[in-house]
UniProtKB/TrEMBL annotation:
This is 1-acyl-sn-glycerol-3-phosphate acyltransferase. The chain crosses the membrane at residues 20-45. It comes from Stutzerimonas zhaodongensis. Coiled coil: none annotated. Residues 95-203 form the Phospholipid/glycerol acyltransferase domain. One of its GO terms (molecular function) is 1-acylglycerol-3-phosphate O-acyltransferase activity.
Length: 269
């Protein structure tokens, strides 16, 4: 109803209308793709020979490649532009990738860049008919807030997997600084060989928390992803008991993101 009222009451340019259509097509493509993966692609992949680890890797690589094609569709249809700095340093064994979460597509871009990544995802996505197929086939970790989740994530890192996590737990509220929960730092101290911060900015803001997909900005948005310098979690583990080390690492990460995001803020004319 809101979309229909806006279209009736305001005049929009042809490029804006096209981006609205292209954004809607992107969401439809994402949903239908998830169903196809669940009902066709993964059952076929499951028939191929290999153990559990090989099947998991095939599923993750399939999701990664399709996410990359999805990003390219959004780029070529004029929905977004993007810039990635330091992608070659993502995907190392035992690497915990920690990112802020300004938009809906952050996880899509990160998984697209890392061919065999694990990821901590919201519990609600496990029950969503459009996403549960890929999530379960790839054996991503449910962010259900339990102690078992922390153990599962740490075990994945100790096994040499790359793990993506968003310490905020949900998308950043526009205009506010990100607030990190301490769980990511606790996971890092338990199992990560290295921690790599990834700073994400979306300009102008779009696809934010509680924002409908059709409320698109006046121009196509720019997605900027910057991979930061590695952090050795053992530097913090040696400073004291686990709760203290976890708090100090979390504070360090929080300060890093606040500083880096400030550098990306537009300056006044």
């Amino acid at each position: 109803m809101e979309l229909a009222a806006n279209l009736l009451n305001r005049r929009y340019s042809a490029p804006w209308l096209w981006r609205l259509v292209a954004t809607g097509l992107s969401f439809a493509l994402f949903g239908l793709g998830g169903l196809c993966l669940r009902m066709i692609v993964f059952p076929v992949l499951g028939l191929l020979p290999g153990d559990t680890t090989e099947r998991r890797s095939r599923a993750r690589q399939t999701v990664s490649r399709l996410f990359w094609l999805f990003v390219q569709f959004m780029y070529r249809s004029g929905v977004l532009t993007y810039e990635v700095e330091g992608a070659e340093r993502l995907g190392r064994p035992g690497q915990l990738v920690i990112a802020n979460h300004p938009s809906l597509i952050d996880v899509v871009v990160l998984i697209a860049l890392i061919r065999d990544a694990n990821c901590v995802v919201k519990q609600s996505l496990w029950d969503n008919p459009f996403t549960r197929g890929p999530i379960r086939a790839a054996q991503y970790i449910s962010n259900n807030g339990s102690a078992e989740m922390l153990d599962e994530a740490a075990d994945a890192l100790r096994q040499g997997q790359t793990l993506i996590i968003f310490p905020e737990g949900t998308r950043t509220t526009p205009g506010q600084a990100p607030q990190f929960h301490r769980g990511a730092a606790a996971i890092a101290l338990r199992g990560a060989r290295l921690v790599t911060p990834v700073v994400i900015t979306v300009t102008p803001t779009t696809l934010t928390k509680a924002e409908p997909w059709y409320r698109i900005p006046a121009r196509r948005f720019h997605f900027h992803l910057r991979v930061g310098e590695d952090i050795d979690p053992q530097m913090f583990a040696s400073r004291g008991a686990a709760p203290i080390a976890s708090r100090q690492l979390n504070d360090h990460l929080h300060r890093h993101f606040i500083k880096e995001l400030a550098l990306d803020e537009p300056t006044a004319a």
